[in-house]
Amino acid sequence: KNQVEQSPQSLIILEGKNCTLQCNYTVSPFSNLRWYKQDTGRGPVSLTIMTFSENTKSNGRYTATLDADTKQSSLHITASQLSDSASYICVVRGMEYGNKLVFGAGTILRVKS
Amino acid sequence: ETGVTQTPRHLVMGMTNKKSLKCEQHLGHNAMYWYKQSAKKPLELMFVYSLEERVENNSVPSRFSPECPNSSHLFLHLHTLQPEDSALYLCASSQTAIGNYGYTFGSGTRLTVV
After folding, report:
1. Which residues of B touch A32 (CB under 8 A)?
2. Residues 44..73 of B with a Cβ closer than 8 Å to A: which?
3. What torsion, rounded to 10 degrees, do the Cα atoms B5, B11, B14, B18 define?
4. Tens of pLDDT along A30-72?
């Protein structure tokens, strides 16, 4: 069973609207949690990184939150743009087995005009 | 560009063909990785190289053969692949293979096995 679960699997929203993507993980103990954006035909690019002591981190219109007690993270996108259409991947780095990365399956976001 | 370059971007090959994927980074990173990305699935780690030495092989079939001639280049040699091997193959690099350094990904090679 994958230790990082993301929801929803896919999402369609209108341009200008806000949305929130969820990530639940069981990786423990963990070093950090990253959100990546993967445009179609491209590799993943890091948006935010948070350690277990951080609750929120912003990068422009992207705001990530982390609740280390409930092992949940969210990525909130404000005033969505067409260029936000991509796959958003939650990645947790565990402290065991050489600090491996554990990837979620991603949420595919499509922003419509 | 991220600093990690993969070629070719797209590859169609028959099950009896032999081909190679190439990855190049000039970021000064010492670790390089091959990942397989299939639709709606998490990225699957295939191989890890640290300072040109393979440090991890995640039970990958022998029809995939990696090669790391130096810390800037990584190859994935393919032979007698199966249709289920069709996927996006991503190369990544990081400063070291351990620690909390971030990964830089290439754009991937979209492989189709016919």
Report:
1. 100
2. 45, 56
3. -20
4. 889 999 999 998 999 999 999 888 999 999 999 999 999 999 9
